[in-house]
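quick one
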Amino acid sequence: MKNILVTGGAGFIGSNYINFMLSNRDEYFIVNLDKLTYAGNLENLKPSEDNKNYQFINGDIVNSELLDFIFQKYKIKYVINFAAESHVDRSILGSQIFYQTNVIGTNVLLETARKYDVEKFLQVSTDEVYGSLGKEGLFTESTPLSPNSPYSSSKAAADMMVLAFHHTFGMPVVVTRCSNNYGPLQFPEKLIPLMIINSLNNKKLPVYGDGLNVRDWIYVIDHNKAIDLVLEKGTPGNVYNIGASNEMPNIEIVKLILQHLKKPEELIQHVIDRPGHDRRYAIDSSKIKKELGWLPEYSFEEAIIQTIDWYAKNKSWWERIITGEYQKYYQTQYKNF
Ligand code: NAD
Ligand code: DAU
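structure w/ DAU:
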């Protein structure tokens, strides 16, 4: 058995990872440690909850006693650190928890993993650590780190820490830097689910600035398959970019969603821009393709339609989310919009 500690497994990418791996890998025993913040949702893990190779633990990656207990009890040999505060806009509203979880939390987890001699520690990072691109060019693994938001600066700090533990202690760490994910189970504060849900509710769609900021989109299962490959075959001390070469201006995605749902473009409303808004992300993933043989399998055209249809069919999933705390956040972020 391969005993893996997955942190943040009740969030969007982590829950898709666990559900996919447990239905495809008999040899994985997965312990999911998640603090269940506003973004964590155990409903995401329904397909896995009764699996004999799955254990959920409600807790914080900052809690070193709890980590000691988990590493000993479950003989953890692999760690995948998904746990993070992940939303740029929230990091602009208040940054402290981002450094607490994304930097201090990663440090506590890393120190514990070192103590128990793990075989691989995989830090799930982001292309946002590279900063912003102009009209041309792609991020490669050797692009200098130049993060612009509190969120991305906390992720960049964690990346450097993880790589320093390889350099100093020889720890078998790997870092993955992926572009923007989309798919089922994404918390509706992020562009795609937010625009789908607002469209379904005939609410205005708040597009920041001129809507021409570009993001490079990847289907969540393609990301998770890359993570699995890097966990198995990635060379310690290395960084792997992950992306599917699907650059699109935000406004085009918003229009595509409206078109598919047969809603009018009049729902679009340009609102004040995100402070420090990165203009363009685009990722060069030739290293993981050449060295590990990874290739994205999902076409954007098909997977985005399946994703829109998933939210249309799973109203009860998001209707439970968009109450309470979400409404408060929405009011603060979008004011009287
Ligand atoms: P998410 O916000 O949906 O989920 C984060 C999860 O982490 C939640 O379940 C939350 O409860 C948990 N968590 C937060 N703080 C914790 C703590 N202190 N201890 C334990 N659990 C905690 O995020 P996501 O979109 O699934 O992103 C997962 C990871 O992937 C993050 O590290 C993020 O930086 C990275 N990433 C995300 C994207 C993207 O497009 N969403 C792209 C590249 C990289
Ligand atoms: O690039 C990877 C990153 O992608 C991850 O590291 C982050 O965790 C993830 O949140 C995502 O960050 P972005 O800031 O790119 O994603 P978000 O969905 O918040 O925004 C995507 C684009 O859409 C961005 O240009 C801002 C814009 N936007 C977003 C929202 C929420 C709007 O125009 N209106 C909105 O209401």
